[in-house]
Amino acid sequence: MKLFLSIFGFSLLWSKTFSASCRTPLGIISECVSLYDCPQLVGLLKQSPISADAVHFLRQSGCGFEGNTPKVCCGPLPSASPQSTVRPRPNNNPDLSGNTESSVGEDSEPSPRGECGLDNNEDRIFGGEATDIDEFPWMALLGYRTKMNSITYQCGGVLINHRYILTAAHCTVGEIEKVVGKLVSARLGEYDTRTEIDCLGQDCADAAVEVPVQAAYPHSGFSDKNVNRKDDIALVRLAKRVRYTSFIKPICLAERRLRLTTGSSVYVAGWGKTLEGKNSPRKLKLSLPIFDKSECVAKYSTLKAELTEGQICAGGEFAKDACRGDSGGPLMKKASSDDWECVAVVSFGFGCGSDGWPGVYTSVAAYNDWIRQTMRSSNL
């Protein structure tokens, strides 16, 4: 039942009455019935694993609940489509030419509440893997120029206004420059790195946007030599202002007063390593619990990594963690105002999804003042 509630969402739970007639995702007039009375959709649920396209079709078919049982607009499934004609990505060498735009005053501050953290749809599968095509529209991929003169994406981040991305310091300076290359671009509005235009069923996103990087501002206290990765936070200033769309939006920043309780749920997202040991072409998400800080400090002290007040621990469950490729990406939660906010930045961990070992994240609340001061001093 938990799976059903996850797929069909929570926003319909308040509904007490349902229309007998409905229109299926394929546009066919049908009836709103119990999921168990629709063998076609029950068959979709029996897929293992459930594909992202199947989840999308199930979501669109939902028409309410009767108690805890989902109701669906029952009808035929979409016919198996031939191979997509969407062309794959061109070479990994996007055009990053163009002049740097002049500064705009409002870019000296993070996006305000009411404009930031706006989700496109409440109908989600938290704790699952595949995201919906327009989910977490603030996610960014950071691109690096390699010695072979191509672009490779090795870190993540989040858009916090038209001009700035929040990420980890280790994604902008130090070892990554020697091993990978120079940070030169940010990719926004991405979902599936294999295709030029991303689609789930009949819903297609705008093409992803590649924006040149003007400058990176890692925290002055960060050093690769510090085992505890203290001050692992940075801002990336884009060469051009980004236009907001349904697939590109900013996330809110956690306020200084934020306190996270042990066991409360937070979420990570990105294109990082999967259990198969390779990066995912599609954007993934994962629900994690906040880990007890004192226990986390004790664990990492055995590795001679003395954690600071500016760090948060989350995870600690086997095979559930943010791994390489998610570095610099966000730890997120919904605020009481229902806006999504970034509470921390992925920093480091012990292994990947090791049981009992949480990941370590740089607290946004602890560095809120630094973020704002850096934006004001660099937006010139």
From TrEMBL:
Record-linked Pfam families: CLIP, Trypsin
The cellular location(s) given in this protein's UniProt record come to:
Secreted
The reaction(s) catalysed by this protein are: Selective cleavage of 103-Arg-|-Ser-104 and 124-Ile-|-Ile-125 bonds in Limulus clotting factor B to form activated factor B. Cleavage of -Pro-Arg-|-Xaa- bonds in synthetic substrates
Could you state one GO cellular component term attached to this entry?
extracellular region
Output the Gene Ontology terms for molecular function.
Answer: serine-type endopeptidase activity
Q: Where would I find the Peptidase S1 domain in this sequence?
A: 125-376
EC number(s): the record gives: 3.4.21.-
What positions does the domain Clip occupy?
A: 21-74
* Feature: compositional bias, Polar residues: 80-103
Which enzyme type, at the first EC level?
hydrolase
Query: Record's family?
Result: Belongs to the peptidase S1 family. CLIP subfamily.
Q: What is this protein called?
A: CLIP domain-containing serine protease
From which source organism is this entry? Leptidea sinapis
Tell me the organism's taxonomic lineage: Eukaryota, Metazoa, Ecdysozoa, Arthropoda, Hexapoda
